[in-house]
Amino acid sequence: MNQEWAIDPACAETGAEFRMLASHLGFTEGVLVSKFPSDWVSRAYHSAAKLNEPEKTRVCERIRRIKDSGAILPSGRNFDNQMDWVANARHQHEATPFDEVVTKEASPGCRSISEIDSFDWSTARGARRSGTCANFVSILCPLLRVSSTVILLDPYFAPGRRENRQLFNEVLGLAFNAKCKEFVIYVRADNWSYRRENCEYELKKLLAVTWEGTRRITVVCFDDSDPESKQHARYIFSERGGVRLDKGLQVDKAQVDFSIIEMPVHDDLMKSYVDRPLALVVDYRVSFLT
């Protein structure tokens, strides 16, 4: 899930097949486009320009949506302009593998866009892995790198536990060293270890600040004792998308289920926790700069 796919910009020339592929891209689908090379968007538009109308307009609109959704990830791989895209992709795939390499034409070691009807999308939407810090980071990294505000909804979040402290700092570091300016934590009052008066002090003791500049951490401690407002599911999400965390943001030696938050659920979470006043009873809210 949150897979990084290298997609040949020339695939845009296929029209309908590219539009079908584009419908499966984004954080609510679990498949992201590698920005390979750095001018991937321009190259895709250039390929789309070879189509006749109205297909050209349709494909260009799909490219725009991919770009605006934040589904294009920085690749960090070199690109040799003396070689064609496929040769570059193969070379970089050997050094730092992509999850998939999709090409316009059939090519050894790659998947042709003409095979799109046979693609298995289910593996992109969920994963079961041991709940190690490394696995959490691997799954959450793409989302954290492109989000302006990250929200953790975890009634049982316990960052003070020794095994969770590193994970908490890794997640904050990924987010705050990228675009994120605020990390918001929603936690149940009955399970939270810190009182209002010492919450900021205790959390700051846990932080291993690895980022430059000022960032904000906000804790919303809620009371959901009313059965109608009881919070069970645990999520980490942003304006881009999100992941459901089977056992919350905590290290666990056992197998943990991760799943992509699909668009209707993501829209509902954004409305409930960002766009509208919170429906939950708030015990206290603390917000501080780091």
Describe this structure in words.
The protein is of the alpha/beta class. The protein folds into two domains: 3-119, Rossmann fold (3-Layer(aba) Sandwich); 125-289, Endonuclease, Chain A. It has nine helices and 13 strands. It has helices spanning 16-22, 40-48, 55-68, 85-95, 122-125, 133-146, 162-176, 199-206, 263-275, and strands at residues 3-7, 31-35, 72-74, 100-103, 111-112, 126-131, 149-153, 182-188, 216-223, 235-238, 242-245, 252-260, 281-289. The chain has an eight-stranded mixed beta sheet with strand order 6-12-11-10-7-8-9-13, sandwiched between helices. The chain has a five-stranded parallel beta sheet with strand order 3-2-1-4-5, covered by helices on one side. Strand 7, helix 7 and strand 8 (182-188) form a beta-alpha-beta unit. The longest helix is centred in the middle third of the chain and has 15 residues, at 162-176.
